[in-house]
């Protein structure tokens, strides 16, 4: 969800991929809320879709976050890059952990979980809800910067170390945040390496799509159906499963970008889909920060005020509001008198 400033005009596929990723994040959290609220969701389908999403969607964001590491290092230097991440990662982490946590405490009697203020204030060593991503991503950034700041050639050696750390995390339960860093550093550095070969992948996007699509569906069937494992199980097959899901999203995004570029100005379902994904990707950070509050809020209104118990309706409206409300709220900062909204997302200069 970071580093848009260094993206070239030909790299719109990264926003498309982020759009796909953030929609999966939103659906996953809304669906879990609906299921836990006992609104009649089919348990089998819920767990299957939940597993398929969580197989790869957070590794995807770490991969995308690592794409521009080397170019950012070259432009800003190690100190400048870390300072920028203090502004764009740690600052919104603190603001929104306190804001969402306070709202959750107030609304505990209406939601599917109980939250105390003491739990919220543990944010410095125990991130809550979706905000663990920002906490861990900042640590991953710092470790990667320290590793590569003067020796970019260490990237491949770093990948081997990250692979060893990933394997260790699957063998033993490490302490937080070492466990999360070990689980996701590999994908971050893989994204950094991938950026060096993106042109080749773009040229062969269709082949990558077919291969990764077949790999992901086959591995997911074997992993979940035959082995009976879930997304949080510790098994070495989880790595190729995650990688194939990531490459599936990236190749599909590259193909959508290519079609958009080859047919400018043409309207159609695929064009509208691409534009919607681009929009969601461009606003992935505010959507990520606000979607829990928005999705939970509409579920409370539908259930407690209108007494609606339809799971499909809750899913549809929950996802819609979880995307649109953050987007509209974030855009308000551009209006006269609402500039203060920007302070909720980025530290003041």
From TrEMBL:
Which parts of the sequence belong to the Acyltransferase domain?
12-331
Which terms are listed as keywords in the entry?
Acyltransferase, Cell membrane, Membrane, Transferase, Transmembrane, Transmembrane helix
UniProt keyword Transcription, yes or no: no
Q: How is this protein situated with respect to the membrane?
A: Multi-pass membrane protein
- Signal peptide (residue range): none
Record localization: Cell membrane
Task: Spell out the molecular function terms from Gene Ontology.
Answer: acyltransferase activity
InterPro entries on file: Acyl_transf_3_dom
Q: Which residues cross the membrane?
A: 12-32, 52-70, 130-148, 174-194, 206-224, 236-256, 276-293, 313-330
User: Major location, coarse class?
Assistant: membrane
Record family assignment: Belongs to the acyltransferase 3 family.
Protein name (Swiss-Prot/TrEMBL): Acyltransferase
**What species is this protein from?**
Undibacterium curvum
